[in-house]
Amino acid sequence: QHVVAEMGSLLAGRGVNVRYAIHPVAGRMPGHMNVLLAEANVPYEQLHDLELNSEMAQVDVALIIGANDVVNPGARDDPNCAIYGMPIFDVDKATAVIVCKRSLNPGYAGIENPLFFKENTAMLLGDAKASITAIVSDLKSR
User: Fold this and answer.
1) Contact 33, 70 (CB under 8 A)
2) What's the structural domain count of the chain?
3) Of 49, 69, 77, 90, which residue is the catalytic one?
4) Predicted local distance difference test score (pLDDT) of residue 29
5) Does the CA dihedral 96-52-57-16 come out positive or negative?
6) Is residue 132, in this structure, part of any structural domain at all?
7) Which residues neighbour 120 within 8 Å (Cβ) at sequence distance 6 or greater?
8) What residue numbers bound the domain in which 84 lies?
């Protein structure tokens, strides 16, 4: 979480409006992700939940770290989807989406995520900490 906070701080220092969207079921228990980000000194006012959906179409870049089912547009759009009706982040409505996760494997629901194959989505496969650390290094070098 510290490298994510560092990335956010670097971006905010460049005038980027950084916000952290935390799904209510993210983490090992409710509030887990909020605690982790608080430990990394992420300002509380940057932590949000599903209320960010109303602004998602105006977001330039949505960076998804490790999430799968909670960003699956099938839950919103496909009545035949096993998780249809589950609240998700509408990240597919952002101008660009970067998904950082280990593989294209399904999440807990065991279903494919069509977000991963959309034209506005780039997949950054690998270890999340290593990937974000590389982004931080690149930001520092510019």
Assistant:
1) no
2) 1
3) 69
4) 81
5) negative
6) yes
7) 92, 94, 95, 96, 97
8) 2-137
In a domain, 72, yes or no: yes
Is residue 54 very low, low, confident or very high in pLDDT (cuts 50, 70, 90)? very high
pTM of the model: 0.93
Characterize the bridge pairing of strands 61-65 and 47-48: unpaired
Give 51: exposed, middle or buried? Use CB within 10 Å, 0-12, 13-18, 19+.
exposed
Is 127 an annotated catalytic residue? no
Tokens of 49: 């939940």
For the domain that residue 12 is a member of, what is the CATH number? 3.40.50.1220
Reported in sequence order, the residue ranges of 40-132 that DSSP labels E, i.e. its strands, are: 47-48, 61-65, 96-101, 121-125
Q: Is 76 among the domain residues?
A: yes
Whether 96 contacts 120, CB under 8 Å: yes
CB 83 within 8 A of CB 55: no
